[in-house]
Amino acid sequence: MRFEQAISEFDPVLGLEVHVELNTETKMFCGCSTTFGAAPNTQVCPVCLALPGSLPVVNGTAVESAIRIGLALNCAIAPRSRFARKNYFYPDMPKNYQISQYDEPIAVNGYLDVDVDGDTYRIGIERAHMEEDTGKSLHMGGATGRIHGADYSLVDYNRAGIPLIEIVTKPIEGTGEKAPEVARAYVAALRDILRSLGVSDVRMEQGSLRCDANVSLRPDPQGPFGTRTETKNVNSLRSVERAVRHEIERQADVLAAGGTIVQETRHWHEDTGKTTPGRTKEEAEDYRYFPEPDLAPVAASEQWVEQLRATLPEPPAQRRARLQQHWGFTDLEMRDVVNAQALELIEQTIEAGASAAGAKKWWLGELARRSNDSGVALPDLPIDAVGVARIEALVAEGTLNDKMARQVIDGILAGEGSADEVVAARGLALVSDDTALLVAVDEAIAGNPDVAQKVRDGKVAAVGALVGAVMKSTRGQADAGRVRELLVARLTGE
Ligand SMILES: [Zn+2]
């Protein structure tokens, strides 16, 4: 069924669960390193391998991060929260249970406002709780890397025990046809907040931020919720939007044909844009939760919570609005800035002395083009805000024209040093000394007597040909505006 038709017949209700890996140096319950990409099973110890007799110890920094996340999401922080064992068997989970939180999470009852096409949607936050990540199964020998068709599987426990925060929304109602975009905007806003808090590197493509999307449909917007499905591990913002849209269409087809929705997890396939059934979703009682006997409850004193509240940065949405007003950018310009990940870069370039317009011009123009061509994200290009501010200053003072500035950028990106070093090494300064320019001006006049006469006769527009001659003889290293002034002055006495 087409999306528009599905929405006209059914009201979607969403629920989003986001898992974020914290960027603590060590794991949630042991001292193992959390560095991404290490050789398999080199960052493990008896605790995260669940060897008999080993005991977990809570990572204090992870608890601080959890509290700061809760506060940034306007949650209440529980004065006492407790870990629980969530029992299930997975080969990548050596304990056969996951230490999580169940009925006493650390943060509850918050909200996050997100903006879609100028409308604000307040997304209720049910809870944010602490838990540990699983290891990773690698299915070898097959073409797809999936378990089907594989010859054998390997398990890497480096990730087992990395601190996770799971952030669960309340049911999101009333979004109608905007449901897919609201889902995407929520994950984007959450990612911005987590990044601003500095608690995670929030790289969806590396799995440090993962979204599970619950979707259900009901015929009557005032009626009870329909049966939901949970699409797991959707790993890009675009996929969040596509997966929600697809699931609305798919469920509408099933319901319209008189079928029933099965409560289950579903897998998202980026290539086909479809979901396929996973396992039938367990109910909470299937996990046999019970309080973790090896860990004392976490008691967050009011004083500690208030200390952490004082460390919260300005909320990203508020910061963007402030900077936009300060810089005088339009909504569209600001969206381009954010999409290009250029907000901090432009802010730093302005701090280093450039104008807002100048900073935007270089980052969103020439440098964004280099970023696209090379596939290297703008913040990862080997040029910094100070370098861009210096180029802008050299253009503003007339030492460089735009063409030469692009050559300076070439040099910096090629590792030839700072802007000034590239200017010096490549001999890239405009001839701004009038004495030198006048020699070239007189040569151009002498070499083009007919054109010169036209200008003397009042056809000032003809001077362009002479400007061109001077630019050619100075190999482009003259300020064309100044050349024009000198020519007109020479020929008309003005
Ligand atoms: Zn360990």
What does the model show?
This protein is of the alpha+beta class and 494 residues long. The chain folds into 3 domains: 3-309, no CATH class; 316-426, no CATH class; 434-492, Arc Repressor Mutant, subunit A (Orthogonal Bundle). 39% of the residues lie in helices and 19% in strands. The chain contains 16 helices and 14 strands. Strands 2-5-6-9-1-10-11-12-13 form a 9-stranded mixed beta sheet. It is elongated and about 95 Å long. The mean pLDDT is 92. Zinc ion is lined by residues 27, 30, 32, 44-45, 47-48, 161.
Any chance you could write out the topology, listing elements then pairs?
Blueprint: H1 3-9, E1 11-21, H2 60-72, E2 76-77, E3 84-87, E4 97-100, E5 107-116, E6 119-132, E7 136-140, E8 152-156, E9 163-169, H3 179-197, E10 209-218, E11 229-234, H4 237-256, E12 264-269, E13 274-280, E14 290-291, H5 302-309, H6 316-327, H7 331-339, H8 343-351, H9 356-374, H10 385-396, H11 402-413, H12 419-426, H13 434-447, H14 449-456, H15 463-473, H16 480-492
Parallel strand pairs: 11-12
Antiparallel strand pairs: 1-9, 1-10, 2-5, 3-4, 3-14, 5-6, 6-9, 7-8, 10-11, 12-13
The structure holds zinc ion.
